[in-house]
């Protein structure tokens, strides 16, 4: 602890104030392997949180690919190199045929920053719609989509928000088709409002899994109506796959496939290089070329041979270790376990998710569904004390966020569940 | 060639149109080492262009640092880690005492995107001034600074441009103090114009070496007057060190030190991790905390342990191999050689630069100084044919851009000069 205090003081001096640390007692990590991480005192933690080390912390095949390519050549895309071509060919093969070209960036934020301009290039308009509890990244342009912190100089006026969908408390009070209709109506209102503005309607950008919104359980075809509304209005649909992509949902390689839609533009980041900084934008040839014609774009590090080697190794491991299938099987098992805990603990109001992105919404009362946000904070801190790392999220910040590296096993799930059982019992 | 044609077709199919390749006959690189790169046919090229592999292509110490840390732990800054603290401590030690904290990003573009918001947070204003031939990166916000391509929806109205300084053709026709006064006056006009606008004056952002503007030879203290004007107007001075930083000018570790000024915010990128994607923003504690208070900011990959290990290894090599000193000595030697070539070739109008960022401005006539832009294109293509990679830049696109990896030796300079002599003779 006193060691941590000194580290925290040094951190504030060198990195500034308000740098988040997740837990009341921050974790000082020094080592990672698979689904495990170790702190400076040699204590081991089960990682139920980190999706960036997608195929497992320090996966030897990814490390080896990075080391080999870094020792061979690392330069930019103004020279020809087969690494980026092989990777983009492989990546786009996982999509609908209409999504066949890519721009590689270094982060998901850069990818979304490009995606917004792609939609501008195609439509000639600048108005964007997002949900009111979204997060699409940290660039100046992309942070305008978030309502959490008004920028200096004010919002640009070109953003409209639709309510974050909440399947547990559906808009209009009804689930199923009524909910879908109500939400699509809210979207159409936002579209009409933008059309009347000087900005016009350019795009709807959503995480097709609504991850930050709390990964709500939605009626089948929920986004199909939204996609139709967007197309009818001449706009583009951007799916941010930073969280659900690369097989995490267990059933589909991409979140938009899970949602049953085909977007115009897809963005990705976090898990793509297992921690190596790489992101990307996938679109149709026409959409991408419209962007390349309307904007100059060059990204020095984007698509460099080392980044492409890391990203290719991630695809290799996903395939060879059948990690999407693992996500499906273990996710189902763990959700069943969580539901079972719900029989003992009234706090568990709603268990949901897909594959290895799931959790429970904690409520003070199952009838009123009053969010147990403070208790959620206590739960994740208590889990950390007992050696299990997880987070919380959602509009009410009362859902546990369980999103481990993809090699997460049934044994790992059992450990997580038994510690959670303990923690809930001890509240 | 036919191999290249197939690669180019595949590239256009997968990456889209208008992806620049530098040369008429693009280079297909497969290997790099020190100041050398090799193409797919095994042909070796002297690299006189790339500043990203700052301490040399595939430097074994950087590769080893990346491989070791990637195999140990790679995660984000919400957990405590000493790697980022050790690096930021070391990095900020190279600056004036007032510049003592940092935010790490993945690219120079992200760094400038943050820097603009830092200035907004401090001043409460959003108006920015840049030169009319600058490039500060590829995000939507930062590309608004460039006049090369008007964005869809138009410029935000918050940007003013001052003329790119040209020491060879000084503003008002006179060099020395008159030039400095004329340029500072143009800056003051832009400041006043912004102050009268709804945006107010937030910051001047410049590369202190004016790299993209053609690294002009400027009167001593040129930017000192500019810095004073900015401070007097309540604005912040942002220095973009993506190109001159990390000892490249030979005489100083940072371009702003070379220019004799202390900025409020410093941004960096390209050479920082020798090709590994890392960038950063250095500022005073107060400036950084103002940003952290006004904006939410978290960068998933920024400051991760692997990036910090790569960046630390770059500092190690710079120190141990005395590369800044090498840049000074070899740069001086090479410029003398270029000047000597000027005695034979009338095309060489002006030799300038510092350390290992230098070149010659090619002119059709030394009296009228008419830019030989097309010839410059022919020259760099002919150099490439003869195994020497360099570029061109500047307002008139007629200056050779010689900016090799820092271990560039006198022998390397001799080779470059003799090939250039040949090429110029053969025009």
UniProtKB/TrEMBL annotation, chains A, B:
- InterPro entries on file: Aminotrans_3 (IPR005814), Aminotrans_3_PPA_site (IPR049704), PyrdxlP-dep_Trfase (IPR015424), PyrdxlP-dep_Trfase_major (IPR015421), PyrdxlP-dep_Trfase_small (IPR015422)
Q: Which domain of life is it from?
A: Bacteria
Q: Spell out the CDD domains in the cross-references.
A: OAT_like
Family matches, as Pfam families: Aminotran_3
Give the protein's cofactors.
pyridoxal 5'-phosphate
The reply to whether Glycosyltransferase figures as a keyword in the UniProt entry is no
Q: Which UniProt keywords apply?
A: Pyridoxal phosphate
* Family in the record: Belongs to the class-III pyridoxal-phosphate-dependent aminotransferase family.
The name this protein carries in UniProt is: 4-aminobutyrate aminotransferase-like enzyme
Organism field: Rhizobium paknamense
